[in-house]
């Protein structure tokens, strides 16, 4: 106990809260928001019965309801037996009186309601001029100087009785102010009261106020003019801070206090959606309802770290600006009675305790049932993040671990974020950790670099280029050929001998490439034959250049190692560039020759066509007579196109005219074939040639048969064509 007392303990402002309710005659006015007393609809009303007029609550009634709900939330989430969050109600009119004290037995909602019932509503007959909220502020300051049970126990446990106890508090005052000057007057009154009571507390062995928060809530009827503006929290002095909230009465002041209770006591809202519930009118049907609950913000600490937008949780706001985290009712297939991996449990309370969905959910949980809650997601598998269950008659929101549990086996190093990776450099990483171990070191002398900073600098240089996976590196997989270059290049300074050693390693790699030696690269992570040898060397030189560039700025000698690599690789790069350019030029020349050949062939074919058009009819007939018949020509054309060219010993002028040697038919041959087929379709064959043997027919056959003058009329050795009969 003594050890606990020696530790400094600070009681926050939420430890003690004084709620001041203005009981002046002004609070007896109507709030301006009516309530229908006659719930029967007008269409079903009996004839002759006048419906009851709607009722209007007073400002006092709305204030008491809102303050009671404020107290209910605090007492539900922080039960009085914990003695962490204490409330004290003060009524002020012509004088101030307290409804309870800081004792545990008086910290209950029923005790507060009994005191409010005894006070009753304000009366119009009271002296309004003598009613002031300053009486309540003075009593609130006096109450904050009184120590709570926890504070008194902590003070008694201190080894030094003169050691001060940090005593903070909050005052929530619900009243109606007249102007901004009235607010300043209340601040000055509060400041003066704190100073006076602190002096009294030091003499009377009480607790002086270290700091006090004043929350003024200015309320007016609904629809009335409100000239008071909201003021954020401001520091009036080192002992007092003040903020002003201006709201209308009715449901507006209830929503404002519901928002303030979350702010004052570190609470947040969660809405459970999709709760299946039977209808009250028809038990055979069911519908889905939503229930809002309040609990400590620590239940959503992971959401607060990531932010609502980046996390998988959904968040919405109501018309009063209250945020709520949305969780979905889930019915898992597994047994939820089993032990769950839970990271925290926090008491809850319904935001609307009188609603039927809240009552049904509360009864369901108090009967020993449990509810699993999942994060609503647009895609992917569902994640069960919370669970509702009751313990000892109280309902708790359990935070379930969505990641790995410490009770499970530790994850394997081969399980990466992108899936299962099996080629991590585990051995190299073990050596890396051994080289960067931290050890005790004596206090540094003046001007000496701190060991912590020096260790961070070494770690930064070592990790400038450090591939995690074996398949992502080549030079670290062939240490026998690259050593000591990867080790020396990470040093803060290089000597001349070390520069020479690095250059020798580079020359050794150049010799390997000149001898076309294969690189000792493991086959992990590759499929098939892998990259070719030239490609492997290209990747190795690129990686080595990346490593040296990462350390070139360390010192001048590091830059010399990089320059050595660049000088060695420059001729090879220039040769590759020149060969690449020469290949491009040769390709361009071949393309140009091909284009010129095609152009010359096309020009020759076009000249042949023009020459054929310029021929006379006699020349055309002689030209066509030199070609074979149409069928023989088509057969030759198909043979020349489909089969490879055949080298002929003798080629006539007629066969070679208009045709490319050893290739497909030219444009002239195609044009000639078309002309021949056209004229052959119009030509009637000579009857004598049809009956003659061969392509020639003898003339004057009848004269030879008569034997009269056949020999004298016919020239010797000349055959003439036979004409038609």
What does this protein structure show overall?
The protein is α/β, with parallel strands linked by helices and 725 residues long. It has 23 helices and 20 strands. Strands 1, 2, 5, 6, 7, 8, 9 and 10 form an eight-stranded mixed sheet that branches. The chain has a seven-stranded mixed β-barrel with strand order 11-12-15-18-17-16-14. It has a two-stranded antiparallel sheet with strand order 3-4. A hairpin with a 2-residue loop joins strand 17 (383-391) and strand 18. Helix 2 (59-77) packs parallel to helix 7 (251-264), helix 14 (496-514) packs parallel to helix 16 and helix 15 (533-551) packs across helix 16. The longest helix is centred in the last third of the chain and has 58 residues, at 556-613. It is elongated.
Write the layout of secondary structure elements.
Blueprint: H1 2-6, E1 10-11, E2 16-22, E3 30-35, E4 55-58, H2 59-77, E5 86-92, E6 96-98, H3 109-119, H4 134-145, H5 149-156, E7 166-175, H6 180-203, E8 211-220, E9 231-235, E10 240-248, H7 251-264, E11 267-278, E12 286-296, H8 301-306, E13 314-317, E14 323-330, E15 342-350, H9 356-366, E16 371-375, E17 383-391, E18 394-400, E19 415-416, E20 419-420, H10 426-435, H11 451-462, H12 479-482, H13 485-488, H14 496-514, H15 533-551, H16 556-613, H17 617-625, H18 630-642, H19 653-656, H20 667-682, H21 687-691, H22 701-706, H23 710-713
Parallel strand pairs: 1-7, 2-5, 2-7, 7-8, 8-10, 11-14
Antiparallel strand pairs: 3-4, 5-6, 9-10, 11-12, 12-15, 13-14, 14-16, 15-18, 16-17, 17-18, 19-20
Helix pairs in contact: 2-3, 2-7, 4-6, 14-16, 15-16
InterPro entries: Cell_cycle_regulator_Mat89Bb
GO cellular component, one term: nucleus
Organism: Branchiostoma floridae
